[in-house]
Amino acid sequence: MATRAVPRGLAQLPNALTILRLALIPVFVVLVLGADEGYSWPAALVFAAAGITDQVDGFLARRWRVESQFGKVADPLADRLMIDAAVVLLWVENRLPLAAVVVILARDILLLGGYRLVVPRGYDFEVNFLGKAATWVLYAALALTMVTRAGTDWPLWLFWAGVALALVAALQYVLGARSEVRT
After folding, report:
1. Domain total for the chain?
2. Roughly how many angstroms between the first and final C-alpha of the chain, as a whole number?
3. Domain of 41: which CATH number?
4. φ/ψ of residue 164, rounded to 5
């Protein structure tokens, strides 16, 4: 294992950012619930800050060689919870169709269940570029949905593009786990 590239205290920053992202979820929920039919710059800014911390914590962990088991589990979990909260709340506010909720939640339940099944059998779950790209697109699309008025279609198109990327990434994870666990 490579030695870390930063002092011990600074090495905790990526995990602290992940914990911050988890802590932002209830703040985000309150802001959306208090919004005008899902239109909320404050909620979108909190959501965008969560998206930025996702990028920063992973980048720092890899660059500083301080990746941890906690980070490998908590980082994608924080993303899933934040995105799931946004999808459900924007559906409640009639900004996203029910199909969006069903597809995103089904994908996340499948990944969570699959993770619990294959990791104990030796699969080393590594987020791939397509999975990262899907998360970036979903964060952007959902934030843009919050700052455009109801009836604006283009953020929804971006959202479905993110969903398509997420589904392809999920398929890659499933195929990778299947081939690695079989051998």
Report:
1. 1
2. 24
3. 1.20.120.1760
4. -60, -45
